[in-house]
Amino acid sequence: MNKQWLWALIWVPSVLFADETEDTHTEIKQAITAGNEAYQAGELSQAATQFDYVATLIRQLQAGELGNLFPEPLSGWQADKVESQAGSAAFFGGGINASRSYRKDGGQLEINITKDSPLLQTMGMLFNNPSMATMGGYKVKRIKGQTAMVKIEDSSQELQMMVANSILIQITGRGVSEGDLKAYAEALDIEAITRL
Length: 196
Hints:
Blueprint: H1 3-40, H2 44-67, E1 78-79, E2 83-86, E3 96-104, E4 107-115, H3 121-127, H4 130-135, E5 139-143, E6 146-153, E7 156-163, E8 167-174, H5 178-187, H6 190-195
Antiparallel strand pairs: 1-3, 2-3, 3-4, 4-8, 5-6, 6-7, 7-8
Helix pairs in contact: 1-2
């Protein structure tokens, strides 16, 4: 293949993605300006609508960035594209969510990350009370300095970690080993996910 065509294939998608991100930043700034103007004019409902829109756009940016933080497939594995979404305050508690599936030798593993959702408060109680977790059939471990809960039932496995009381990482698998779940948990960049 001609080298110029090869570079075009690499460069064009990145430009399109950059343009899309830049458009979102522009929309955010415009909505903030419109919200401020509405607030100054005493149009409180209109101001609230604009600022809700700003929050939604920012969550969409976060969801996209979160999708970039999933580990690449480990040796011998294949992976699907990342799926990400941002929920409004009215749905899903206003948090962001992203997931990615991995496959190897007939086994499948999925990593799901949920961030900044008030719905995570209930899960936080479980992580703060290890005895409650063990009663639920979980083994408690430490992975990369984080408390992790592992449950194995027949051919299905589950590993969960709560980070900074606002991020839930769930790694579920079927036809894989507990070591596979742990390997992917250790491959995650916890610091980058926390900073987002």
